[in-house]
Structures are given as C-alpha cells and as structure tokens.
Specification:
Ketoreductase domain-containing protein; oxidoreductase activity; 283 residues; Sc_DH/Rdtase_CS; NAD(P)-bd_dom_sf; alpha/beta; binds NADP nicotinamide-adenine-dinucleotide phosphate; KR_dom
C-alpha cells in the first residue's frame, strides 16, 4: 500500500520555477523536481540560459521576466493551456544589489525590489486565482539568511529579502483558506552565479563619495556567499525539493552554509550582532 507522499509524487505535480539559468539555484531546483517525477516548467529571462534542458522532455521551457506583467501573464497562460494547472510555484528569480545605502542609486534599489519583491507578488497574483479555484497548491518564496542579520554593503538586497519574508508570512495566513500552502525557503550561502551577476551590476554604479575607502569591502560583499565552503547547488536543491514535496511542508525551511550561524545571530542582542558584522564585513 502506498503512503500519501508516494501518492502525491505519483500525480506528477506541475511545478513552475522562475530564474532557472544554468549554474543557479533555480536550475538545480528544476532538475531536482524532475528527478522526483514532477512536470517542470523551467522559466528564465532567456531560453539560451537553460539550453541544456531544451531536449529533455521532463521540462517545458518558458521565457519569463518577473519584472514584466505581460511576460508573467503570457508564461502562466502558456502553462495553464498546456497542463491546466500549476501545483507548485517557486519564486526563485532574484538579484543581489551591493552598495552603501546612503549612495546606492535609487534606480538599482527599484530594480532590486521590482525583481525580488514585486516580481514575487506578480507571480503570486497571476497563479493564486487558479490555485484557489482548485483549492490546492503550494507557493514557495525564496528569501535569504541575509535578512536575519542585516549587515553592511548589501542593505538593498537584505531589505528586499526581509520584505519577501514578511509577505510570505502574510500569504501563508491569507491563502490557507484556499488550500494553498506557502513556504519560505531561506538559503544560506549556496554556489551559484549570484556573485558574478552582482559584480556585473556593481561595475555599472557610479564612484562612491563618502564610501570610497570601503570600496574593497563593498566589492567583496558581492562574493560573500560564493566562498569555498558554500553549499553545492545540487545538494541544496535536493534537500529543498524533498521538503517542498512533503504532504504538509513546513512554513520555513533554511539550509546551506551559514544557515545555522544566521539563525543564532537572529536571536543575538543587537550590540553583539553589530560587533560581529562590523568585523566580518570590514565596516
Ligand atoms: N546563492 C546564494 O547564496 C543565495 C543565498 C540566499 C538567497 N539566494 C536567493 O536564491 C535565488 C536564486 O539565486 P542564485 O543564487 O541562484 O543566483 P543566480 O545564479 O544569479 O540566479 C538568479 C536567477 O534569477 C534570474 N533573474 C534575475 N532577474 C530576473 C527577472 N527580472 N526575471 C526572471 N528571472 C530573473 C536570473 O536570470 P539571468 O540569468 O537572466 O540573470 C537567474 O536565472 C535568488 O532569489 C537569491 O536571492 C541565493
């Protein structure tokens, strides 16, 4: 006799993952869902960034820019036309933003919030009516341990992830009436393209005025999650997908390098937190 989790896997849930470029967490999550017999809609801004998935019949590839309402609506429509439902939505697409808050261009702040926060909500608002109609679904928002102990040099990113954590908690309460589970996945430091992408954006920013002496520390912040001990993407994805596919997934799932340290820091007095962050971030 099969247990309920086996039955759930048997149904081949349709999973839509945003931000699936090769080398990143989304790509690894997409492959891990496929390995668990899910039908996977792998979405990214460009198909070429997911070219290795192109010929694999387990994946339906979609170009999707979470900053564009039109793009979101088109991709969700394509998925509903093909499969009739979205069982699991994983809001993984996200960008880092490095720079001192007092000088970082507001256009970069807007871009970060538009991607990480409004992009998540755009996807939620596009998919929830269909999930609510079926009284079934899971929404997974990818936050960050950075939001548990906000440090210097990446305040924009950290604030955007704190917003994701807050809206995830609210969504969980509001959507439970419609049979929709909402999970906050909170990665520690995971190997991906995020450091290189952050530096590419950082290189476009103007020179700092007050913060010139901190230039090196600020630039290093972009790679903070990409050090030698960072958790391999596949390992993180395997654990995360196993958790998401549980019949009753937890409200919060954090794993990866630094996830325990950051959980401890979250409970520390602010003066201790500040001392540790000043030391580790050369502030
Ligand atoms: N890696 C870590 O240590 C870590 C830690 C905590 C949280 N996270 C979170 O994990 C998620 C995945 O990040 P990652 O580390 O895998 O970084 P990544 O390798 O840079 O992947 C980010 C993905 O998001 C996509 N993306 C960016 N802007 C987008 C937009 N407007 N529309 C659609 N897709 C967009 C990127 O597409 P392009 O390839 O086109 O840029 C890429 O596919 C992010 O939410 C990140 O904040 C990562």
């Amino acid at each position: 006799m099969k247990n309920s989790e086996d039955l759930e896997l048997q149904e081949q849930p349709v999973v839509l993952v945003t931000g699936c470029s090769q080398g990143g967490i989304g790509h690894a999550l997409a492959r891990a869902f496929a390995a668990n017999k899910c039908t996977v809609v792998a979405a990214s801004r460009s198909r070429s960034s997911m070219a290795d998935l192109e010929r694999d019949p387990r994946f339906f590839l979609q170009e999707l820019d979470v900053r564009s309402e039109q793009s979101v609506q088109r991709a969700v429509k394509n998925v509903l036309e093909k499969y009739g439902c979205v069982d699991v939505l994983v809001n993984n697409a996200g960008i880092q933003c490095v720079g001192p808050l007092a000088e970082v261009p507001l256009s970069a702040v807007e871009q970060t919030f538009d991607t990480n926060v409004y992009g998540t909500l755009r996807m939620v608002q596009a998919v929830v009516p269909h999930m609510a109609n079926r009284k079934k679904g899971k929404i997974v928002n990818v936050g960050s341990v950075a939001a548990m102990a906000p440090g210097p040099w990446s305040g924009t990113y950290t604030a955007s992830k704190a917003a994701v954590h807050a809206l995830t908690d609210t969504l969980r309460l509001e959507l439970s009436h419609f049979g929709i589970d909402v999970v906050n996945v909170v990665p520690g430091a995971i190997k991906s393209n995020i450091g290189n992408s952050a530096v590419a954006s950082y290189n476009q920013m103007p020179e700092w005025n007050l913060f010139k002496p901190f230039e090196r520390a600020i630039r290093e912040r972009a790679y903070f999650s990409q050090r030698s001990k960072s958790t391999p993407t596949d390992e993180f994805a395997k654990n995360t997908v196993a958790t998401i596919l549980k019949k009753n997934p937890p409200a919060w799932f954090s794993s990866g390098h630094y996830s325990t340290v950051m959980a401890i820091m979250y409970h520390m007095p602010i003066c201790v937190k500040d001392f540790l962050l000043r030391k580790s971030m050369n502030c």
